[in-house]
Amino acid sequence: MATSTYTPSRNTQDGFEQEPGRILECIAQHAERGERIDSATLQAMRAEASHLADVPASEVFSALDRVLVSDIAGQTILDCLDILAVVLPELEPMGGCPQNTPYHVYDVLGHTAGVIDASPAESISRWAALFHDVGKPRCRRVDAAGRDHFKGHARTGADIARSALVRLGASQDFTEDICRLVYLHEWFPPETDDAVRYAIGELGGRVELYRALLALQVADSHAKAPIATERSDIARRFQVRLARLENGSR
Question: What are the pLDDT digits (tens) for 90-102?
Answer without folding.
Answer: 999 999 999 888 8
